[in-house]
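INTERNAL AUDIT FORM
Audit reference: QA-55
Scope: verify that the stored structure record matches its stored sequence.
Auditor: D.O.
Record contents follow.
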Amino acid sequence: MRAFVALDISNTSLLDGLQNELITENRWSQQIIRPVRNDNFHFTIIFLGEIDLKNIENIRTRLADLYFKPINITYVNIGVFPNLYFPRVVWVGVDKTGGQQLISLSDRIISRILDIGFKPDKEFTPHLTLFRIRTRSLDLKNMLSKYDGHTFGSDIITKLQLKQSIISKSGPIYSNVFTVDAK
């Protein structure tokens, strides 16, 4: 099973509204960008790749008793990955305090699964993907400048999930394998 560990968000309508605002203001079409479906919004902590049932149980055992409090975040700024000249993803970031709490939780999650062979391929950066970009000729400089320092609203993180990812022609399909709730 293709899997990853993620933190689910609560305020999907806020991000759905932000997507619609960006599409309208920038006159983006489906040929230019592909919006992330609101049921797929999450913060990816670590991509695990293809794992088997034994690994699922090992991960479940190591994360089941993880204690974390709900994390309040505020969505701020719009950015792109990997860079402005070859953007592939448009994302929204989080405030400094919420971001530090997400990083701390991410570090705790990863420390629990390192010794069973799961190591992140990159450092966790608190961001949430809004769009995947389909063209390389998209100039985003003005949009990024417009939203620099902008606050979009708040959310609360209360669920850690092991998610299965199935790739399809219409985009990824995610399902929750197990959940750890904030306490």
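Auditor finding: record pair retrieved intact. The longest helix spans residues 96-113.
Action required: none
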